[in-house]
Amino acid sequence: MSSRKTEITKVTTEAQPKSENESRILTVRELAGYLRVHQSTVYRLLRERKLPAFRVGTDWRFSRETIERWMREQQKRG
User: Fold this and answer.
1) What is the pTM of this model?
2) How confident is residue 13, by pLDDT bands cut at 50, 70 and 90?
3) In what order do the strands lie in the sheet with 25-26?
4) Tell me: the pLDDT tens digits for 31-74?
5) Own/partner pairs for 38-43, CB < 8 Å, 24+ apart?
6) Angle at the Cα of 62 from the Cα atoms of 23 and 43, rounded to 5 degrees
7) Please, are residues 51 and 68 in contact by the beta-carbon 8 Å criterion?
8) Rounded CA gap, 35 and 74, in Å?
9) Which domains does the chain have, with CATH numbers?
10) Residue with more model confidence, 32 or 7
11) Is 61 in contact with 29 (CB distance < 8 Å)?
12) Contact 53, 46 (CB under 8 A)
C-alpha cells in the first residue's frame, strides 16, 4: 500500500508545473486569483465576451500570455 501511495504522489506532483511562471494555461479560479477579482467577475466578463478564453469541454481556460496582452490593452484604453 505504501508504494501505491508513493506512486500516486509522484504522478500528481509531476503533472503540476514546477513554478508559477511555467503555468501558461489558467483555470477560472487561477485567473480570478491572478486578477484579484471574484470568480463571478470572470464569468461575467466571459458572458460579455470581454475576456480572451477557450473551452476544454465545459471548462474555461485562459492563456497567461494572452491575458497579459489583454491587460496591457485595457490599461491603454484606461
Assistant:
1) 0.70
2) very low
3) 25-26, 59-63, 54-56
4) 999 999 999 999 999 999 999 999 999 999 999 999 999 999 99
5) none
6) 130
7) no
8) 13
9) 23-77 (1.10.10)
10) 32
11) no
12) yes
